[in-house]
Amino acid sequence: MSEPIETSKKKISIEHAQPEDLAAMEKICELTVDQGIEPKPSRNFLQFVPAIWLTPYMTLGTAASGIASDATSGTTPDTRTICLVARLREKGSAESSVIGYCISALNAHEFETSVAQNWYPQLRAQYQSRVGEFTASDKGTWRIIAHPEPVEEAWLGKYPAETHINILANGRGLGVGRHLLETMSTELRVAGIPGFYLGTAPLNVKAHRFYEHMGYELIAQEEGGGPVYGVVLGLSGLSAGR
Q1: Which of 67, 122, 159, 198 shows the smallest number of beta carbons within 10 Å?
Q2: Which pLDDT band, with edges at 50, 70 and 90, does 238 fall under?
Q3: What is the pLDDT of residues 66-75, one digit of tens each?
Q4: Which of 153, 230, 155, 170 is nearest to 198 (CA)?
Q5: Residue 2 per-residue DSSP state
Q6: CB under 8 Å, gap of 24 or more: what pairs does 144-149 form?
Q7: What percent of the chain has pLDDT over 90?
């Protein structure tokens, strides 16, 4: 892990997420989903957002050191994930809080296929009867749950890992984003992953500028979505994992 960020009053450390961090991470996901958009869109089912872009990484994913076995098909899909949190501790206090996270699926294609087969069906069963309550924004997220599409982008050979990062306002401007991404890069590199990609919301201009400042490559501009950035990781001297 990277060295902690310290100020006169606080210390922020990058750590592996624990199961008990999930609720705080889901809240961060909900609070940051519509960054850059004003006025904020109406959502009656905000829980769909972490259900797509966070929770399965913590609950379906296997630790980066292992690969889950699919007993029904006899294959071993690569569902490895790495989940990191930025943990804030006020100096002189034993209390801590999660103010940001960064998560990666090491093989985006196989992980998202597993999510479509093993995660979304239960969400469809739970919420199908309530589609009449959906706002326009809810319908957008529901479409992903109801009709998941395989991840087959052309860039997966070069950038096979899918990464997401979200940080609360009180963690911005302190280097938290950089520390999370640098730590994630190191862990992916050790796991033998040659590169990762991350998407952005179309109006989140600050995020676009941050990734460009980090030297990330613009690899796609999704129709109706925001820029997608890719990062090549040097694997020299490291043995590649699966």
Answers
A1: 122
A2: very low
A3: 444 444 444 6
A4: 230
A5: P
A6: 144/52, 145/48, 145/51, 145/52, 145/120, 146/120, 148/112, 148/115, 148/116, 148/120
A7: 68
Q: Check: CB of residue 193 under 8 Å from CB of residue 162.
A: no
Between strands 227-232 and 217-221, the pairing is antiparallel
Averaged pLDDT for residues 108-123:
96
My answer on whether omega of the bond before 39 falls inside 30° of 0, hence cis, is yes
- Which range is least confidently modeled, 7-11, 61-65, 132-136, 190-194? 61-65
pLDDT tens-digit readout, 160-219: 999 999 999 988 888 999 999 999 999 999 999 999 999 998 888 889 999 999 999 999
The encoded tokens of residue 141 equal 């997220």
Distance CA 160, CA 232 (A): 10
Cα-Cα-Cα-Cα dihedral sign, residues 71, 124, 48, 160: positive
Q: Which residues contact 58 (CB under 8 A, 6 or more apart)?
A: 17, 19, 22, 25, 81, 83, 103
Cα angle 219-222-228, degrees, rounded to a multiple of 5 = 35
The C-alpha angle 164, 167, 171, rounded to 5 degrees, equals 150
CA distance 145 to 51: 9
